[in-house]
Amino acid sequence: MSSDNNTLEDFASEILEDGVIDADEVKAIKQRLYEDGVIDREEADFLFTLNDGVSGKANHESWKSFFIEAITDHVLDDDETPGVIDQDEATYLIDKIKGDGQVDEIELDLLVNICDKATGESPESFSDFVLSSIKSAILEAGVVDLEEVQILRKVIYGSGGAGGADVDRAEADLLFDLNDATTGNDNAPEWQTLFVEAISKHVLEDEVSPNEIDEDESAWLVSRIEGDGQLDENEKSLLMAVKEKATSISGKLKPFMEESA
């Protein structure tokens, strides 16, 4: 494969000719792109072009890991904002991933990896895109399996997520949305653990009222629990955890707990 003498556009055409990326092609791509130790924007564009062209095909397993590594390096290993996603990088990633009209499995894993590896909070636009992409994938599957629990953990607790290492309202709402949509389905047992743990962290480890349920948190919890018209097992476990851990409970939640007991 004469990759060194080709433009990246020609190189991409050569690789995409048979519709898949094999192990030798991954090695050739890696050798060329990392020759100077940096993945620049043109090279990142090249990688997205390749991924869009072979999405869903029987590519060698090394393609997925290389693509995720290289794009993560492009946005987190730069000189301007090392370790974090800036607004330009956020816009770039969203536009490239949405470019072919779908968020495929590799691109979803890329988003999760960036949230996990970033050392600082990402722009709201990027965080919202990550959460909506994960939500769509889980709702399509209809269940929250162990792999999806692990994905959610990385995004929610990763420094590059919406609330950094904390659990913010957008992330907490996502968890309730997923819980409402998958109640009674064959979810992994670890899903309940994450749901209770993360929502408890959101309302009890905040800066405004640490260890307490204030009026806002109380109203939010009641509205979310009542939202789908049922009190499921995950929500019951959440109420028990909050009752046990909170030093005080204000607003609607306390009488709601008594009525639900």
Structure summarized in a few sentences:
The chain has 261 residues and is mostly helical. The chain has helices at 8-16, 23-33, 41-54, 61-76, 87-98, 105-117, 124-141, 146-157, 169-182, 189-204, 215-226, 233-245, 253-260, and strands at 212-213, 248-249.
Q: What order do the helices and strands come in, and which of them pair?
A:
Elements: H1 8-16, H2 23-33, H3 41-54, H4 61-76, H5 87-98, H6 105-117, H7 124-141, H8 146-157, H9 169-182, H10 189-204, E1 212-213, H11 215-226, H12 233-245, E2 248-249, H13 253-260
Parallel strand pairs: 1-2
Helix pairs in contact: 1-3, 3-4, 4-6, 6-8, 7-8, 7-9, 8-10, 9-10, 10-12
Describe the structure.
The protein starts with 7 loop residues before the first helix and ends with a helix. The chain is built from 13 helices and 2 strands. Helix content is 64%, strand content 2%. The chain has helices at residues 8-16, 23-33, 41-54, 61-76, 87-98, 105-117, 124-141, 146-157, 169-182, 189-204, 215-226, 233-245, 253-260; strands at residues 212-213, 248-249. The model has no long low-confidence stretch (mean pLDDT 93). It has a two-stranded parallel sheet. It has a domain at 123-260.
